[in-house]
């Protein structure tokens, strides 16, 4: 909000005078276009390049087109601080927590001002879609996360709309959240969540591990689906292992794939039990590549769903409204991966998973429940001698 002269209102001046000096930014905000290499393929999160609450479908027009093997730099903004129940004004919302106007992202302000979120849509802002030349249904899109840079030194954790695991329980229901600051401790970043109670001041300080909650390809539908539930297209899978260095593999649903990202997080616990993680904006550098359907058929006989290779692990997923079914699907996909990549008998792969792999709830609050497995690459010898196996296993760092 601005005054008649274009400057801050009297209310904002008063707020800044009272609490603004209490907020010390841990690092400068990363505004749109700032720090971008002129040679980079850059996609800002401006209103013309994002969707609010819905995901691209086969009828959408790409905001950019890239060839396989291309690196792209993509800005994301968080939905926290801009939603209706927070006042639909990020300058005012974050100003109440001592954040100066210059420390609020300009693209978050512009997206909010457009007011393009449809009734009943999800909360997320997704940037894209990005067309990948030559991608066809049946291919796998490999999205390598090269780098994730925090764009603001703060974020928000919240619960709302009766979606948390404890929804309906007295004392835990309702719409509420917490503004969190970011701190540097000996070269590592941490979030701070106040724990004030009964007149005492305290806080929980936890390490940050930024990742994108939403990475997906367009659905093969004539209309845009909501951004909340994940599925075969990826989307809101909320696997916190998708930090820098990870590669996510997505089954292409429509020609040119139409990739998009969003729901940036600074940190999340497996389960995401209250509803959100520490929601905060990121700049992502991604390299997109393709594994053609012919290579998959030549070296893998199982079902293909979203899965990842990261940090020495294979990470299959399972998603379904019923958590038990999501687990069953994840185990099935894990058996298929182990059998296909290492020439294992499926029954022996099943026994291995029981002895040595972990199956974890990714999230339990997004209509469709998510489970992911963690399978150590180091437990196996050489992979199957197929192009497909080589292209997956080379991605595990």
Automatic annotation (TrEMBL):
It comes from Nocardia speluncae. This is Acetamidase. InterPro entries: FmdA_AmdA (IPR004304). It holds the Pfam family FmdA_AmdA. GO terms for molecular function: hydrolase activity, acting on carbon-nitrogen (but not peptide) bonds, in linear amides.
